[in-house]
């Protein structure tokens, strides 16, 4: 959970204060909570099976879920990654939701989990990265999930995300958004209507396309439609 101020007790520590920190409780850990006047709330509970799979994906020698020996962590990167996930939790793009969550949990397990895999360099896997890229390109307008990518490549999600990021410098969901924008740009420049371009390139609706389009190009799809020769 992430909270402003809370007092809780568990086997790790009798009293914990966590102003704007990440509070972690091991799977099966019994704990209590006592809020201050501002209150508190659980923000994320992860199934044990999911943590176990992630732990093993990070290091195949490990069995079972990870342990978190420190109940309260002050890690700006961990907080930022969780905050990013919560910003997109209602996103229409399942690939981004799942990727953001996996990035946040992977960081927590790798950096703060007991028996964590050592930070050793991993070889770049260009063949795997290309397979992921090709699948995304072939399913540009679809709501691609990590399960789809796993099935298409026969590779675990953590490994394929890591290979893709090392090869292309960004995660699959970000590459997919860029590819969709490039395709929509080409269609609109050819005279295709903005609503139609949004639909055939996987955007939820015209406002969704317009918002991301302006962020990427500095002008709206409407401006492009009126002046198709601008870059």
UniProtKB/TrEMBL annotation:
GO MF annotation list: DNA-binding transcription factor activity; sequence-specific DNA binding
Source organism, top-level taxon: Bacteria
Protein known as: DNA-binding domain-containing protein, AraC-type
Keywords: DNA-binding, Transcription, Transcription regulation
Coiled coil feature spans: none
SUPFAM superfamilies attached to this UniProt entry: Homeodomain-like
InterPro entries according to UniProt: AraC_XylS_family_regulators, Homeodomain-like_sf, HTH_AraC, HTH_AraC-typ_CS
Keyword check for Transcription: yes
Cross-referenced PROSITE patterns: HTH_ARAC_FAMILY_1, HTH_ARAC_FAMILY_2
Pfam families (alphabetical): HTH_18
Domain HTH araC/xylS-type: 130-227
Originating species: Thioflavicoccus mobilis 8321
Transcription regulation is among the record's keywords: yes
């Amino acid at each position: 959970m992430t909270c402003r101020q809370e007092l809780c007790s568990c086997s790790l520590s009798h009293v914990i204060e966590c102003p704007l920190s990440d509070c972690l409780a091991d799977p099966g850990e019994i704990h209590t909570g006592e809020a201050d006047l501002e209150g508190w709330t659980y923000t994320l509970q992860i199934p044990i099976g999911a943590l176990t799979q992630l732990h093993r994906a990070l290091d195949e020698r490990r069995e079972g879920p990870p342990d978190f020996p420190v109940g309260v962590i002050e890690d700006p990167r961990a907080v930022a990654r969780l905050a990013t996930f919560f910003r997109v939790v209602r996103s229409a793009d399942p690939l981004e939701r799942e990727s953001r969550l996996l990035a946040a949990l992977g960081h927590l397990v790798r950096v703060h989990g007991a028996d964590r895999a050592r930070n050793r360099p991993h070889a770049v896997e260009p063949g795997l990265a290309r397979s992921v890229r090709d699948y995304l390109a072939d399913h540009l307008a679809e709501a691609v999930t990590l399960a789809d990518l796993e099935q298409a490549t026969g590779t675990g999600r953590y490994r394929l995300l890591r290979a893709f990021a090392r090869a292309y410098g960004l995660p699959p969901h970000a590459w997919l958004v860029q590819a969709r924008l490039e395709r929509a740009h080409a269609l609109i420049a050819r005279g295709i209507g903005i609503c139609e371009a949004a639909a055939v390139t996987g955007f939820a609706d015209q406002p969704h396309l317009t918002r991301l389009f302006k962020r990427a190009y500095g002008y709206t799809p409407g401006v492009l439609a009126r002046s198709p020769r601008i870059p």
